[in-house]
Amino acid sequence: MPLLTRRKFLAASAMAGGYAAGLGIAGRFGLAAPLPTQILKAHKTEAQLSDSGPTKNVLTYGDAGMPPTLRLTKGKPFAAQLINALDEPTTIHWHGLRIANNMDGVPFLTQPYVNAGESFDYAFTPPDAGTFWYHPHCNTLTQMGHGLTGVIVVENPDDPKFDGEVVLNLRDWRLGKDGQFIAQFLPRDAGKSGTFGTVRTANWMGEPQYDAPAGGLLRLRIAITDVTRIYRMNMEGADAAVIAIDGNPVPSRFPLDSLMLGPGQRVDLAVRMPDAEGAIAMLKDTRGTSPKTIATFRAVGSSLKRDLRDLTPLAENPVAKADVATARRISLALSATAESTAVDSICGSLGYSFWAINKVPWPGDTPDPTAPLAELKLGNSYILDLENLTPHVHPIHLHGMSFTVLASSTREVAPQVTDTYLINADEKVQLALVADNPGDWAFHCHIIEHQKTGMSGYLRVT
Ligand code: C2O
Ligand code: CU
């Protein structure tokens, strides 16, 4: 159900506009006012997502439409109040942010449920700049599938200057021909690559178009917040350089060319807009049998004649470097399982178990979880030897700490700092980290059906 008839024309926020919207009066005039608490009210709404009229039972945070893009500043305190106006428990997880364990939003592992009608105050200071996102960690397939996925931009005031910025929240919806939700998953697909959405959107629109200065440098921040879909990204009609992946600068920039990114992942692109007024650049997903234009960018005004090489590098985030020589190794094997251990749990299980880590299928989020996958000593270095024994690709995500990709058995890898690694079938990869954040940290596949049918666990740092 493509939405080609419902194109939207939107202006790329000029940086000044973006800051003003994010910071309000105090920020605009540089006054040192305390940041107000961001209210995030999870509630039910309706939204125009397809050509078939409004979809009911959409979930969002905030007033109307898509969950707000949150603008934080590296090293500055942030506070948000989750108000649960759903009719079931929820929580918020701040994906990729290295914050204290009790703010991490995982039921039982880090905090109690936030029950219907209750609220919870989150407060933390983001140590890293980059593109991140937020979502519930309870009944996740339904809550995320129905809309609760939002983008977080953590600004670094020292970042290089762009001529415009666009943030894209990419996700699908499982809608029937009548525009209403259909079953969120099919068990036979959960045991394979997952159940795909039927309507694909960027910022809850079919194929939005954004204006950006001709010949200018556009910062494109993209978050894949879908529960299933893996993308292969390309840009047509403009040069695009990959400048950051999963919130962290790439070790060296490279042109966007069929970059594969899975659920949970983010990429920051520097796009050099075409010189000719009205020329259009197209961001495409070319993976699978139905390639799609994700969004388009129209050059406006006379050319600014910028050059991608003008851009100074992004500053590295302060992620500790593992001492590879002394690092202890931890083996983590992803596999299919026939062992059924799924237990009833409000937040945690789809009632099936298809997948396992180190042969143990996660039974669901319960007050009495299985043992940690490994116990790590605070301050020590570790290498995760992650192995994919399945014929499917898995975006594997660790909470609370970032790791560096060291080596892969099947491809050349850059020493990327990240929180999510998209592991191919039959691939073995080494991921290095310093266990510098105490707590129980969830470790799971971000294809939510895989996570919720067993491919989940946690690392304990004490
Ligand atoms: Cu996006 Cu458990 O995470
Ligand atoms: Cu998976």
- Report the CATH C-level class of the largest domain: Mainly Beta
Shape: globular
Rg calc: 21 Å
Q: What kind of sheet is the major sheet?
A: 6 strands, mixed
The computed structural class is mainly beta
Mean pLDDT across the residues is 91
Give the low-pLDDT segments: 1-9, 13-30
| Secondary structure: helix percent | under 10%
Bound molecules: CU-O-CU linkage, copper (II) ion
In what order do the strands lie side by side in the largest sheet? 1-12-20-19-14-17
Compute the number of strand runs: 31
Describe the structure.
This protein has helices spanning 15-28, 140-145, 187-190, 448-451; strands spanning 9-11, 38-47, 55-61, 70-73, 78-84, 93-95, 119-124, 130-135, 150-155, 164-173, 199-202, 209-213, 217-224, 231-236, 239-245, 248-255, 259-261, 266-272, 280-285, 292-300, 328-336, 355-357, 374-376, 381-388, 394-398, 403-408, 417-418, 420-423, 428-434, 439-445, 456-461. The model is unreliable at 1-9 and 13-30 (pLDDT under 50). The chain has 3 domains: 3-155, Immunoglobulin-like (Sandwich); 164-310, Immunoglobulin-like (Sandwich), CATH 2.60.40; 328-461, Sandwich (Immunoglobulin-like), CATH 2.60.40. With 462 residues, it is mainly β. It is built from 4 helices and 31 strands. Bound molecules: CU-O-CU linkage and copper (II) ion. Residues 394, 445, 447, 450, 455 line the site of copper (II) ion.
